[in-house]
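step 3/5: co-fold with zinc ion
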Amino acid sequence: MTDAPLILAVAVPSPLYRSFDYLAPANHRGAPPVPGVRVRVPFGRREVVGVLLAVRQHTDVARAKLKPALEILDHAPVFDPKLLQLLEWAAGYYHHPIGDVVSTALPVLLRKPGTQAQAQIEIWTLTEQGRAQSPREPGRAARQARVMMQLQQQPAGLARDALDAPLSVLRTLRDKGWIRSEMVSRQTAPGAVGGDSGSAHALSDAQQQAVDAVKSAFGNFQALLLDGVTGSGKTEVYLHLIEPLLAEGRQVLVLVPEIGLTPQLVDRFQHRFGVAIAVMHSGLNDTQRLHAWQQAAAGRAPLVLGTRSAIFTPLARPGLIIVDEEHDPSLKQQEGFRYSARDLAVWRGRQLNIPVLLGSATPSLESLFNVQQGRYRHLHLPERAGTAAPPAMRLLDLRNQPMRDLLSKPLIDAMSWHLARDGQVLLFLNRRGFAPVLLCHACGWVAECSRCDARMTLHQRSGALRCHHCGSQRRIDVSCPTCGGSKLIGIGEGTERIEEVLLERFPEHRVLRIDRDTTRRKGQLDEALDDARSGRARILLGTQMLAKGHHFPAVSLAAILDADQGLFSADFRASERMAQLIIQVAGRAGRAEKPGEVIIQTHQPDHPLLHQLVGQGYAAFAAAALQERCETLLPPFASLAILRAEAPQAQAPQAFLDAARTAAEPLAGEQVQIWGPVAAPMERRAGRYRAQLLFQAQERVALQGLLNALMPQLENSKSARRVRWSIDVDPVDTF
Ligand code: ADP
Ligand code: ZN
Ligand code: ZN
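step 4/5: write tokens
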């Protein structure tokens, strides 16, 4: 036994690349606190909530400088040892400050000292008297009747957030003596039960093989790629895997790239299994997120479904991780802590010794490469499920076509044909707003953003010019600021303009536009997707929000209005993205009995990428693209990291990156190439000048070794104080 005081190593939310040492709180008695608990500590002049990483006997900090922590906030850790280890690993791999990593992984409410990590909740049940009532009695208020029916089906009771009623309705019923509530701890709170496993499909042979392959990996780590064409029944495979795990009391974590994809999946899971689902995405308020997190952590939610940050959800009894649409770039966080939820899922699966299933109709080249290397097992669903046939794709040569606003004559004809036969039509254009450019017809002036090297987008309906890069906006100019002329015209097409033309051209059909502008308010996206699914809206027009993963059974024609957009980008991933988007949009057509047709409008009908994709399909395209990456030594045949810097002064980012390059060169050896610094393709954004330095290595370890040595130097370098900088490991965008 020594008398040395306990030293607490705490991850503190700060931009610094290390943890901080504290003494145990003055009033702390008994056993040392366990790593993973939250700790309130003084930090500079503030008090902050950190997370305990380790308890030590020694520290390098001088005794006199050590401050005591103020309070241990939890009895039980909020992060179990494995999750804590995952976070520390991720902080190391992505070279991001541990304090910020830990804070990102915590629900917002737990970043404050007042919140209990293991909370109590209020559970409502029917009273004796309530059970004697008939909820459907005529004249009974509908909302009250619904609550009574819900509670009749769940004799163990339901939490407030599971009941479809405001508190006032619950109070009314309580005052009548029909329902009552009590506080119970989250761990023992009941979940809904029931569900309809009868709705399961008999699996096709390919589906069954996929299910068997994953099942045989239960209880062990294995990464598997479920490569199934759109509509091939991947979700059905997930459902068949989840079922036996739930029966064993195991939890399944499902990651999806977009919040818009969650309601549909939640519905499907709920309908099949009727279990409590913890849903985690940015559309929830802080309380809802905390509840979902607690339910998952306590093992009360057998199914946890969320967008990328859900990868950090504690799980009491994990059995399987599923990453749906694994190719989607949204699975990578693009600011702050730049992690890939897909890659962390694989890491976590290995750590937990459970299988990880990555699903996609258009797998990323990274995952296909991992299959080639024997690291992932390949599961293939080559055909659409049920009676649905693959859609017929064709390139529509726009050259010399009579057309108005991207709606060519052959496209209009095809739309009319499908609409007349009760088909739904889906049009894809990845540009919102009315027109991407506002131009003076007299002098050629173009409306530009004052804070970015970019043009303002014209939003006619709201009377505004908006910059899609920094968000700034202003009213549309009435006259040209240069020549005073009044003939200002919008050049080019955005979804808003196409919508206008459609309303004019197809007045008898309901047009539904889905993009960021029409789905800004909470609930609007769900509502719109409902309208699209139900078939009430006949012509669906939208950006990539509409293209991804949705199941619209009545769509028989899908069209890409402008395929040329993706063909000429500087990013080496642009063609992969374009191919994925085209196949995803195409996949919306003909998903039920109606045969589907896909039209791809282009001015480049001879472009080899489009040809190969349309003629031979995604797998052939991907094989060729992988070959090209191999020859050019780009990912997945090399590892990249980008050091970015920005500042209001044009010179500062360059100076910082020059210094970084000088520091990196002696560390790079033969193994790591350094490119740049160069100005970002859009140099100025939101009033800041941006530049970047690219590191490229054939071996991941060589790159990691360099970054390990470089980061501490950068953190302390003088030029770093004049810029905002970040490191992006495995970037999905190279600018
Ligand atoms: P994906 O996730 O690959 O896009 P889904 O699982 O959503 O595909 O399946 C597409 C459609 O086919 C859904 O309507 C689903 O109910 C149906 N389906 C899936 N598997 C089968 C099957 N084995 N037999 C009949 N229909 C199926
Ligand atoms: Zn002018
Ligand atoms: Zn701007």
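step 5/5: annotate
The domain at 639-729 is CATH 3.30.70.360 (Alpha-Beta Plaits).
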